[in-house]
Fold each of these.
Amino acid sequence: HSFISYALEALNEVDGLEIFGPAADHKGAVAAFTMPGIHPHDVAQILDSQGIAVRAGHHCAMPLHDKFNLPATTRASFYVYNSTDDVDLLVD
């Protein structure tokens, strides 16, 4: 069970959250998502106020955002120093 699999499964538990991108076995350790009715920059700011670092924007994929009619997405990126506890904090 990979770390990104854990993260995607946990994020899928959040009501209304929509994850963009391929399945865990076809992606790196990033999760781009949107929350209904909340601009991705606001999601990032709220998470930042709780000490959770994410990015919001086009992530060098503006044509894809245009295709899906998205103003932006919020993206969580994970690395070797992250743990499942970090994912749980993000989901909470």
Amino acid sequence: MLIIRAQYGQEAFYAVLEGETAYPLRGLPYETLEKDGRALPLAKLRLLAPVQPSKVVAVGLNYLDHIKEMNDPMPDEPVIFLKPPSAVIGPEEAIVRPKRSSRVDYEAEIAAVIGKRCKGLSYDQAKEAIFGFTCCNDVTARDLQPIDGQWTRAKGFDTFAPIGPVINTQLDPANLTIRSILNGRVCQDGNTNMMMRDPYDLVAFASSVMTLEPGDVVTLGTPEGVGPMQAGDIIEIEIQGIGVLRNSVRDEA
């Protein structure tokens, strides 16, 4: 099942997407999948970020090839950090390059969407807690990352967490192609089978640190090939079984 969040006129809602038709839901998809009786053409809707998370828990250094390209040490445990809700944007919204950064990078990632309040999950419980999977671009001010020694500022600017376009609730994340495409050129071309730790292990680990809420997002690392974006660029994150998350890039006014 594909879940979207969309705007129709002044109304925003979650919906089940079937082909080119959206069927709005009566509430949050984590609570009910009851349709409200309408059938709306997708072409008349504006897609929003498919989640409104209380937090984005991001995992770094989960693909060996990316660790090597960044010349980072191999972590003994998952490396996690937070992106604030204010960083989240949806499809077709603009990523804003802040004035204080001279290099802003794309990072293609598959992300798990949490479906219920949970803490201290086992591996098997993590499978049950995941509502579905979506695309994320873990946008990074690369030049600020080494200055701070931790990643909050480099990863946390407004617009630095594009998410979408849909949540696939029936997706097996074990063997999916994941790509970033900058201005039509493929820059990252990996597969989720290259992860050192799988999504269920990572969600369980995150839940050992903090309570996860419905709609929270856990991003799962990026393969090699990250690189900078400039104003006027179009960046697309494409994941098999989910679709394409497309965003433009502009400089801060």
